[in-house]
Amino acid sequence: MTKVAAKAALRRYRGALSSVDGARRQRTNPIFQLIFSLPCLYVIGRWLWPLSLAIPVKLGVAVLLLLASQYHSWSRLSSGSVFAPEFPRAIVIAFNWAFGAILLLALLQILVDLGTLVMLIVQRGTVVPDGVRYAIAALAALLAAIGVANAIRVPPVVDVEVAIRDLPPQFDGYRLLQLTDLHISRLFPAAWARKVVDRANASGGDLIVVTGDFIDGSVAMRRADVAPLAELRAPDGVYAIPGNHEYFFDYAAWMRHLTGMGIRMLPNAHMLLARVGARLVIAGVTDLSAPAVGQAGPDLGAALAGAPKSAPVVLLDHQPKMARQAAARGVALQLSGHTHGGMIRGFDRIFALANGGFVSGRYDVDRMTLYVSNGTGLWPGFALRLGRPPEMTRITLRRALPHDQ
């Protein structure tokens, strides 16, 4: 082995170690695996076992279900991290389909069981025929396939207009393109990233912002996959903040790498846009997960230090839960992601509990507009979208009319 090859191998090894260490700090609790195993156990006990099948067949199907339900354990074995499955893309897609189908089947079986309970109360004795069980399994498999297909497609550009109080007329019609939660990985590789970049560059945005969760994996693992992001182009540049996943995989290394690609990071910092004497502040904060790995947490005061008081502020904050604090500081518009829109319509209420009630779309928060994007990509550990499509968001700023202020 040459010295150059040896050094390259050492870099890859160190990158893998940083990935493992970051992930271990985040998810080593066995409760994490238990939670993801419960739907499978319910499916085996309430859907599979009552079927009129031979015991060896049931045992074989049960083993397959258990293997699919442990997707995150296999991910950890493949890379050291539950967040970065290092399998060929087709296998990652298959795992997401199988895992999603198990979850949906468990939910459908709960509905069947509730219906059976009602029938038992109304009339004595009721038997769920095998045909019903096979039908809900087929429905779960179909919905999971649709959900995965929706999750991995290149998202469309979604247009949103936001009225900004005290917006200088020079910025009326200014367009920001928001990308967020790209989660570039084996599931969202370089080819997908290239299509996203091409669509973003063609969107006509004056400024491109990325509100965190660029990746799943270390720099060594994702170097080629993120390379297309260096081609993002907008007249006023590309600005970004970290999301929580950057802290899982050597935050400092990723900040250096993304900056080296021409993406200007705003960790507790701001920049000024100027138009013929008028100014607009674009500020960014770090993620709430930062202190857990010894990094600086979000500090809006530091981010706005030195910013002109009269200029409207657009804040980039990966997680939406602190929106009311931002509104109290006079922020005009906050752009966030993190929630992936709740992924499945109806389940967004669960995500709302952990995110201050904010999950998807536009919110009026104490005279501040909060926009929570559904996300451009998705965590490859659970890539399923039903009723919550991915998006690239083109936000057009408008001057607020008197009745809007």
Structural commentary:
- The structure is a single chain.
- This protein is of the alpha/beta class.
- It has 2 domains: 3-151, no CATH class; 155-404, 4-Layer Sandwich (Purple Acid Phosphatase, chain A, domain 2).
- The chain contains 12 helices and 12 strands.
- It has helices spanning 3-26, 30-48, 55-69, 71-79, 89-122, 130-152, 190-201, 219-226, 251-260, 300-304, 323-328, 348-353; strands at residues 157-164, 175-179, 207-211, 238-241, 264-265, 269-275, 278-284, 313-316, 333-336, 361-365, 368-372, 392-399.
- The strands form 2 sheets. Strands 1-12-2-3-4-5 form a 6-stranded mixed beta sheet, with helices on one face. Strands 6-7-8-9-11-10 form a 6-stranded mixed beta sheet.
- Helix 2 packs across helix 5 (89-122).
- The termini are far apart.
- Residues 3-28 have low confidence and may be disordered.
